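User: Continuing from earlier, I have the next pair ready.

Assistant: Great, send them over.

User: Here they are, in order.

Assistant: Folding the first of the pair now:
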Amino acid sequence: MNIHSIRWRLPLSYAAIALLATLSLGSVMLLVLKNYYTSLERAYLNDQARALQPIVEQILLSDAPPQVLQDQVAGLAFLSQTQIRVLDKTDRVLADSSLSSARQAVADSSSPTGMVFNFPTNSSTPPAATTDFESDNQSGLSVQVVPLSGQAQSIPVSTARSSQVASLKFKNLLGTTLEVYNGPAYGSDILNTVAIAWAVAGIFSTVLAGLAGWYASRQVTQPVLILTAAARQMETGNLAARVDLPLEKQQEFLSLAHAFNGMAGQVETTVSTLRAFVSDAAHELNTPLTALKTNLELAAAEPNSARRTLFLTRAIEQNQRLETLTHSLLDLSRIESAHAAFEAFDLRQLVSEIGERFASRADQAERAFHLMLPESEIPVLGNAVQLQRAVENLLENALKFTPIRGTISLSLETSAETVNLTVADTGIGILPADLPHLFERFHRGRNAAEYPGNGLGLAIVRAVSEAHGGRVLAESILGTGTKFSMILRVDGNSQGH
């Protein structure tokens, strides 16, 4: 058993809480009951003391012999179910019922020192105690005792004894004290019964709480275990692993499973894309590397200097192609990593500078170029270098695929929340079958095979647009021309920043 596992810690916590609650409540309940029954025992002893006081006082005033006082006190103690002690003003014991047997005193009532008890049955107030000494009695003493407190008749007899003591001073005997003690502890049986019931209830509630905690822990840990199993499957390479909780009703676990499945799908897509990218990159890099190696080998083996120069020139071209490809891959990686710093700048000024530089190139290439910009500034928050690279890629494609005397245009249009940057040309156009794959890495249109390129330019354009919270669209008519539109948010907020 792993006590650090929530599967065990939750049941143990439930059981501990139930045990503490039971102990607390039980302790308070027993304390209240004990105080209650202690007060009843004290009240009982006080009642008996008040009832016995005049009787014992009358015996003391009659100057009865000590043995008679002792026997009378023993008899009264038997009737009151207590122990009685009489002390003088120096606390010397005059009589103590614990030193004699009340039962024996009653049994020997015909003895010279025997006692006669008369209890009126219909009197609520005890009559005055009387004593009568007759000459024909062997001891010359006859005692008549009044009934004790009526409460004594309703008190159940108990073998347990109380530790309470009731003490009263005699009114007519200064310094003499009557003590009534060792009365029945008639609450002890109830307290014992309650304590046993409390212990049983405590054990039952603790076990029940532990079982409830076990059930709750299973409800909590089962979805977690399923999530853990799916994560471990992904760890071993099964990227298609997903979490299914058909019986789960807790919204939190359902949200967690949904988030996990979304993350797993994103990981699977990313890894699949990465694998395809590595495969495509290896293929694209292999072509110029093979050509470079071939030209260098031919140049090394060629004795003719003119042909050797030709082979070296071709090798340099392949080297430049490799440089362009690797630079494009690095740029695409930086853009997609979303680590570029954003700052505020004027998009209109940036596009104007790009257009002015491109205008001379278009003129030298015998293409018409039109630049259409709004009069006011267009403040955006973004990365000017990335946006410049995207616009230049679109213009390079337009220049490459537009024939002589064709037209290329660059324009900016703004709305309340977006700005639309458009590059249009009258070039060869794009096949409809190629349009859905136009922005994928290394994809090149089937009608563009004879044109130079590495298939990363439009992928970079899309990455830049998405990094700035926008998108890029393409429209084309084969043989008529193509239009690319980068739609960006004016405030420059992006998904990655």
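And the other member of the pair:
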Amino acid sequence: MNKDSKILVTGARGFLGRFVVRKFNEHGYNNLVELGGSKVCDLRNPHEVHSILTIHRPDVVVHLAARVGGIGENQKYSGAFFYDNMSMGMNLIESARKLDVKKFVLLSTVCAYPHTTPVPFKEADLWNGYPEPTNAPYGIAKKALSEMLIAYKKQYDFNGITLIPVNLYGPNCPGDTHVIPDLIRKFFAAQKQGLDQVVVWGTGSASREFLYVDDCAEAIVKATLNYDDPKPVNIGTGQEITIKGLVEILKCMIPGKYSIYWDVSKPDGQPRQCLDTTRAKEEFGFEASTSLQAGLTKTVNWYKEYANAS
């Protein structure tokens, strides 16, 4: 790649996509095609995908677009979550191969890991069991696309890589698809409306690893520029926190006269999530630089401004 290489980014108008586009610009890569929304191109339609790639002829495709949601959405629309994510990825990869795209970057998900993966999660464990049932269709679709890139490398020498980020958060993050912004939204609503209770799903005992969105964008750019192996790579901090611990931190940041009600009738999801991030450091020098406390402060401060403005 050089600074004139044309990079097509799907999902460029989404939460992560905006940060990735800005990060490429910061690194001096400004020849970007920002693809956002099904009105521009329905990625589930192979003819539309092939047409858009034929028009733009990118050197690199960074595939961020996805159908995502929380546990409730995953359970309610499990078929659509599988079909939409599988078809978007397959169409893009096949058309990129046919049009001799030099590199394909697939963003996968921590939900691809088996339900009982030993902690910290190592990339070699991806296929050692069935994913957490509450979001298995989504995780399996992403995992299958990763295997597609491995197969395409073997048969066609197609250069595709897979990155597996943990749970993201940060400014502009949609609350209906990510844990941290959903909790922040609930706490501010309770504070503003004088509610005496905030309802949180599960027992609080499950643990999660969280990655600040700007760090994830940096990892994607570094991998795009420096990594050329189809073996998947974890992207995270390597540190976990229980949902109960996270709630206590946010409760201190957003004080109010409310109590926490744990709705144990709702699922916890995967018991633990924490990644081994050794490969990312060794292969393309990525290490997360934003601590959870610093990232939460930035996110809460953004929400204060956003909520006051709206």
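Worth noting for the second one:
The mean pLDDT is 94. The radius of gyration is 19 Å.
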